[in-house]
Design goal:
The complex is a heterodimer. By secondary structure, chain A is an alpha+beta fold. Chain A has five domains: 4-133, HPT domain (Four Helix Bundle (Hemerythrin (Met), subunit A)), CATH 1.20.120; 150-314, Histidine kinase CheA-like, P2 response regulator-binding domain (Alpha-Beta Plaits), CATH 3.30.70.1110; 323-383; 385-564, Histidine kinase-like ATPase, C-terminal domain (Heat Shock Protein 90, 2-Layer Sandwich); 569-697, OB fold (Dihydrolipoamide Acetyltransferase, E2P) (Beta Barrel). Helix content of chain A is 46%, strand content 22%. Chain A has a six-stranded mixed beta sheet. In chain A, a hairpin with a 2-residue loop joins β15 and β16. Chain B is mainly beta. Chain B has one domain (2-145): Beta Barrel (OB fold (Dihydrolipoamide Acetyltransferase, E2P)). Chain B starts with a helix and ends with a helix. The chains are: A alpha+beta, B mainly beta. The A-B interface holds A 335, 338, 580, 624-627, 665-671, 674-677, 680-682, 686-690 and B 38, 40-45, 49, 51-54, 57-61, 63, 89-93, 145.
Chain lengths: 698, 147
């Protein structure tokens, strides 16, 4: 079966399931008795198994199958969760992760059978008494529950068969083949019933031949059936093999079947009748066994259905889109806005009578492009949650590996960021967290000596601040020992002793962001390989953000990452300074003021103004930008009040040109990241205007 | 015929004039050659960086190769051109030159390598080629674009 077209979906869904397994198993460790958690894990493992089976990844299927077995037992209360089981389960998740990565890279799951793990899993089943005896080899569930549902499901007996078909069945039996009637029930929440049925047909046809189905194959294809359909199969394979294959198709709630006997009414068959009739008792027994084995499925399916129905209602309204398509869309919107800006400036130059009509149309166009931009931005925004999710597990592993006690507290998982940023921010955050865990937090003994709680805390807080998203990684550990960094820098030859003595603490700490600078006394495999902070910094800067660290020795460090919310288009205030045009992000501008020169006071030889009760420092942009102001002596000054956090400053400009939506373009690597200029934009007349970063000026 | 084939490994160069000398740039690095257009000054950068220009919707930095080579700055004339270079490390960069003359094809064997220690404006030259009796200094773009 060609499944390559489903590969993307498979990978996405597998990742989601693995993530939820990770989260839920962590929860389980805290609360081993929680039934909801156990059910959730069972469901995720079950779906994974089904998906892997459908895609033909047998090893993955086997492993998930055994995981599912363990949880099935846990759910039935026959075994209890113990801490070593949690470890095993996490190892299983890692193995599954490995399969998934292999599949993504080579479309093949690899050859690692993980037999050791599977053995460990099966060992979990044993010590807890009777349940272990029932070896859960082939049947999808080994529970001892009775088979209440089976009787009502044996619809294969009602299938209308004509003489020819009966003849075929008898012939098949005569040739030693098996004939089974199987009824398959799909979940109520299943959307693409026909597709699922198709997969079932495919699976069955790999093992045998489908003689007839009810409803007919055509009706099933057209989705003209309720929740179940029945097939008659001629095959060499065993019934439970077929049933297992059918159940490996996802969203199949149940499949029950039994072997069919030869029809006596067919005359040609009479000769053989003795032979066949000799078997019935044996066959009856055979029939019962698989039915019983299959019966527990409805229990599982029922529970699954409830939750899934809830989740589906939301899920169905979404469409997965390749991020590249969104990039193209975003670029087109950028082009559209530049074109619109050209139109605005062209119509302003033209003058004439038609202007009013054109003007109102352009205004309308502006509204549309702005909304279009906002919509596209929103489409690209995803919660940062998908990245943060993996951290609790990582911290748990680090706790064991580093033998330190620590807890991770996260907030703001729902904060949204551009998809590209979210994709890239995971590694830097992971570095910072590992850094905090390894270098930041002290061992329990040291913490006790210092009177700190034995369990170290690492905080990860994400929140939106104006046009930025801030992510803070904080720990209550040792903080950065500036003197140690200073010594190390001298030892490494990064700076000379003279230089080092003249550097401020902040400058010393910034050395940490240089390539190949690690202060860890020992190199561990957690961090301290010297590839870390420089990568963090360059990655974040690549995303247009910045990272800074504040630290107090003995009290802990705070790493603050500031990322731009939007990457491409902003609302800007256009100003003129010395005849040159500049853009200032409207987000940082609070008010515009007209200030008489006499209102400017000097405080500590800095120019300030008093404005509504606060003292605001004046920054003459022409001086910052090395250019002559066009403002005449004694004229009032135009001041744009900008803010950064709680700080305010007044930027003195020569002229205001109004507000404009601008598309941010990079200045190119050659000029590099000028601190003052955050980028450039192309104006309506084709000229380039620079974008001033007000945050740097304050 | 045989001999011709052996020596037929050639490189095409764009020949430009800076001051009184002719320089060549390997054509594979040249993206575009445009007339002077309005340059937006960028504050706080090296003096040879004249600013940025808009080329088909992209913002591209431009540098004055005269200043980089230590020659006196000169007025731009109607012959002045901006040669847009595509560099792997630096992305697109425009070079302001006094004039662009022609494209020549030089045989690799005919190019004389420069001596190892280069200085002054020679430090930007990797070799010298001859074309119709005139000397063409071949530019080392890595050096030209280096900070």
């Amino acid at each position: 079966m060609d499944v390559s077209q489903y590969l993307e979906i498979f990978l996405d869904e597998t990742r989601e399931h693995l993530q939820s397994l990770n989260t839920e198993i962590l929860n389980l460790e805290q609360d081993p008795e929680n039934e909801d958690t156990i059910n959730e894990i069972f469901r995720a493992a079950h779906s994974l198994k089904g998906m892997a089976g459908t895609m033909g990844y047998k090893r993955m299927q086997t492993l998930t199958h055994d995981m599912e077995n363990v949880f099935s037992e846990v759910r039935n209360g026959t075994i209890k969760i113990k801490s070593h089981m949690i470890d095993i389960l996490f190892q299983c998740l890692d193995a599954l992760e490995e399969y998934t990565t292999n599949i993504q890279e080579n479309s093949d799951e690899g050859t690692n059978d993980n037999e050791a793990l599977i053995k460990l899993l099966n060992d979990c089943l044993k010590p807890d008494g009777a349940a272990a005896e029932e070896e859960p080899a082939e049947s999808s569930s080994s529970s001892e529950a009775s088979a209440p549902a089976a009787s009502g499901e044996s619809k294969w007996n009602d299938i209308p068969l004509d003489e020819a078909q009966k003849h075929v069945i008898n012939e098949a039996i005569k040739q030693g083949k098996k004939v089974y009637g199987i009824t398959v029930k799909v979940q109520e929440s299943c959307i693409l019933k026909a597709a699922r049925a198709f997969l079932v047909f495919k699976a069955v046809e790999e093992l045998g031949e489908i003689l007839i189905s009810a409803p007919s194959a055509q009706d099933i294809e057209d989705e003209k059936f309720e929740l179940d359909f029945t097939i008659v199969v001629i095959t060499d394979a065993a019934l439970d093999r077929i049933i297992a294959d059918i159940k490996s198709v996802s969203e199949i709630e149940e499949a029950v079947g039994a072997e069919m006997e030869a029809f006596e009414s067919v005359k040609e068959a009479q000769v053989e009748e003795k032979e066949t009739s000799a078997e019935p008792p044996a066959k009856k027994a055979e029939t019962k066994a698989p039915t019983k084995a299959a019966a527990p499925a409805p229990v599982a399916g029922g529970a699954k259905q409830e939750k899934k129905a809830g989740a589906k209602a939301v899920g169905n309204r979404t469409v997965r889109v390749d991020i590249e398509k969104l990039d193209v869309l975003m670029n087109l919107v950028s082009e559209l806005i530049i074109a619109k800006n050209s139109l605005v400036s062209a119509s302003a130059q033209n003058g004439g009578e038609s202007n009013a009509a054109v003007g109102s149309q352009i205004e309308y166009l502006e509204n549309v492009t702005t909304s279009l931009h906002e919509s596209v931005m929103k489409v690209r925004m995803v919660p940062i949650e998908s990245v943060l999710n993996k951290f609790p597990r990582m911290i748990r592993d680090l706790t064991k590996k580093l033998d330190k006690k620590m807890e991770l507290h996260m907030s703001g998982e729902e904060t949204e960021l551009d998809r590209t940023v979210v994709d890239e921010i995971g590694d830097p955050l992971m570095h910072l967290l590992r850094n905090s865990a390894d270098h930041g937090l002290e061992s329990a003994e040291v913490r006790a000596e210092r009177g700190k709680p034995e369990v170290g805390s690492i905080y990860l807080d994400a929140y939106q601040d104006g046009n930025n998203v801030i992510i803070e990684v904080r720990d209550d550990g040792n903080g950065i020992d500036v003197e140690k960094v200073r010594d190390k820098a001298i030892e490494r030859g990064t700076v000379t002793p003279e230089q080092a003595m003249n550097m401020s603490d902040k400058e010393i700490i910034d050395l940490l962001f240089l390539p190949s600078f690690s202060t860890a006394k020992e190199v561990t495999d957690v961090s301290g390989r010297g590839v870390g902070l420089d990568v963090v910094k360059s990655k974040i800067e690549m995303l247009g953000g910045e990272v800074e660290v504040k630290t107090r020795l003995g009290e802990g460090s705070t790493w603050t990452i500031r990322l731009p919310l939007t990457l491409a288009i902003i609302q800007a205030l256009m100003v003129e300074v010395g005849g040159e045009k500049y853009a200032i992000s409207l987000n940082s501008v609070t008010t515009l003021e007209n200030i008489a020169p006499s209102d400017v006071k000097l405080v500590q030889s800095e120019e300030v103004i008093h404005l509504r009760g606060s003292v605001i420092q004046l920054i003459r942009l022409n001086e910052v930008l090395d250019i002559e102001s066009t403002r005449k002596e004694g004229e009032n000054m135009i001041v744009a009040i900008v803010k950064k956090g709680d700080k305010l400053a007044g930027l003195v400009v020569d002229k205001l040109m109004g507000q404009q939506e601008i598309v941010i373009k990079s200045l190119g690597k050659f000029i590099g990241k000028s601190r003052l200029i955050s980028g450039a934009t192309i104006l309506g007349d084709g000229e380039v205007a620079l974008i001033l970063d007000a945050n740097v000026l304050i | 015929m045989e001999e011709l084939k052996i020596s037929s490994e050639t490189i095409q160069f764009i020949v430009l004039r800076v001051g009184d000398e002719q320089y060549g740039i390997d054509i594979k690095y040249v993206d575009n050659i445009i007339h002077m257009s309005s340059i937006t000054r960028v504050p706080k950068v090296a003096s040879y960086v004249k600013g940025v220009i808009n080329v088909r919707g992209e913002v591209i930095p431009v540098m004055d190769i005269r200043i980089k080579m230590g020659l006196p700055e000169a007025e731009y004339t109607k012959d002045s051109r901006i040669v847009i270079i595509k560099s792997e490390q630096q992305g697109f960069v425009g070079l302001i030159v006094d004039a662009v003359k022609e494209v020549v094809t030089l045989e690799v064997d005919g190019i004389e390598k420069m001596a190892y220690d280069r200085n002054g404006k020679d430090m930007f030259v990797t070799g010298v080629g001859k074309h119709q009796g005139a000397l063409i200094s071949l530019l080392d773009l890595n050096e030209v674009l280096a900070e």
